[in-house]
Amino acid sequence: MSNINSLEQRWQQLFSKGYNTSIVQQHFDKITTYYNEAHRYYHTLKHIEACLKHFDEVSEQIDEPESFELALWYHDVIYSTRRKDNEKQSANLAEQCLQQINYPSNQIATVKRLINITAHPSPVHSEDEKLMVDIDLSILGAPTDIFMNYERNVRSEFRWVPNLIYKIERKKVLESFIKEENIYKTNYFKDKLEKNARSNIQKLIKSL
Q1: Residues 73 and 165 in one domain
Q2: Do 156 and 202 share a structural domain?
Q3: CA gyration radius for the chain?
């Protein structure tokens, strides 16, 4: 379970100066409603909480940390395994919500850009983009028991897909990561997670 009170406090701190606190609260409630949808098992507030912990580890390396953090909050706000445009729709919703909060338009554009590059695979160029993708994929390099729980949760989100088809398609996704020269694009996450991510993925591929 995620710590909802801690997350709410953190959200409010992002808009502590000059924003309408009532509207800010409304959008936190809106976000939590999405992330608590019944069909979600991995793409929940717990995932956002994990991403924010990684963000805190590398925030000093990030050029636009406030926009980056908001992109993390919104990057999976729209999520359905039956659609192909989750990231685009999440970016669009982020734009609508942040406009209602009167967030600066140039920073909204950054938020949208960072959300959209979490559609895998996407070309990444700036260090912020690389860190965004690495944080989103950090679960791949988690301790094996946590990684396998993630895999079970992903399967639950695709429970409508027949088992044989799921295994074939899942294997394709996993092999696409293994074929990359580096799963992680930044030195920080390469050093921290690359070896374990490759081990986790290779074990899972063999089990499928």
Answers
A1: no
A2: yes
A3: 17
Q: Is there a single domain that holds both residue 53 and residue 70?
A: yes
Q: What's the chain's length in residues? A: 208
Q: Residues 124-139: pLDDT tens digits?
A: 999 999 999 999 999 9
To the nearest 10 degrees (0 to 180), the angle between helices 65-74 and 4-14 is 140
Cα separation, 152 vs 171, whole angstroms: 14
> What does the buried/exposed string (b/e) look like for 83-96 if buried means 16 or more CB atoms within 10 Å of the residue's CB?
eeebbeebbbbbbe
Here the CATH number for the domain that contains residue 129 is 1.10.3210
The residue from 136, 157, 174 where one domain ends is 136
d(CA 90, CA 78): 5
Domain span at residue 122? 1-136
For the chain, how many structural domains are there in total? 2
Report residues of the chain scoring pLDDT below 50: none
* 91 shares its domain with 186: no
pLDDT of res. 120: 85
Distance CA 150, CA 135 (A): 15
Distance CA(105)–CA(35), nearest Å, equals: 25
Is the bond preceding residue 123 a cis peptide, omega within 30 degrees?
A: no
Position 17 scores a pLDDT of: 82
